[in-house]
TrEMBL record:
This is MCUR1 regulator. It comes from the Eukaryota. Its main location: mitochondrion. InterPro entries: CCDC90-like. It comes from Pachyramphus minor. It is found in: Mitochondrion membrane. One of its GO terms (cellular component) is mitochondrial inner membrane. Belongs to the CCDC90 family.
Length: 169
């Protein structure tokens, strides 16, 4: 009627209305196909809930077994870590002891080297003192020899001079 009043013919109005009814029926059929009844929905809900319950049980079982497995694995790792830590501490102690020993050996070598240097220096000082004393003795000896030769030369010159003097007088 609304279409007829708007200027459509009766036949046109009926065709348009029948097309609209078919479209709506088709749409409703599609919607009804996707829809479920309340009973079907409850059955599906019960099935989902039973699946969820089964999954929960499986998860709890897995969680417990996985948790215990993780706990035992964690304990193993802790033990391994403690063993490694002990080995590292032992190695550190060995290295420290070796370093102390090497340091003490080097200190003793350095002390021995200093002692050898001191002995060599003392021997060198003694040799120098001995050489200086020998040189002083030699110098005194040469000094005495020079005095003897000088005295002999003076007396010889005096004797020669006295001899000339006697010859002239």
């Amino acid at each position: 009627c609304i279409l007829f009043c708007s200027g459509f013919t009766t036949q046109q109005s009926e065709v348009i209305v029948s097309a609209l009814v078919k479209i709506m029926d088709t749409n409703l059929d599609m919607i009804y196909k996707d829809m479920v009844t309340k009973v079907q929905q409850e059955i599906a809900l019960q099935q989902v809930m039973s699946h969820i319950g089964g999954v929960k049980k499986d998860m709890i079982i897995l969680e417990k077994s996985e948790f215990s497995a993780l706990r035992s694995e964690n304990e193993k790792i802790k033990l391994e870590f403690q063993q490694i830590k002990k080995q590292v501490m032992d190695e550190i102690t060995k290295v420290r002891a070796d370093n102390k020993l090497n340091l003490n050996l080097e200190k003793s070598r350095v002390k021995e080297l200093h002692a050898q240097q001191d002995r060599a220096l003392t021997q060198t000082d003694r040799k120098i003192d001995t050489e200086v004393a020998d040189l002083k003795t030699m110098l005194e000896s040469h000094k005495l020899d020079n005095i003897k030769y000088l005295a002999g030369s003076v007396f010889t010159c005096l004797t020669v001079a006295l001899g000339f003097y006697r010859l002239w007088i």
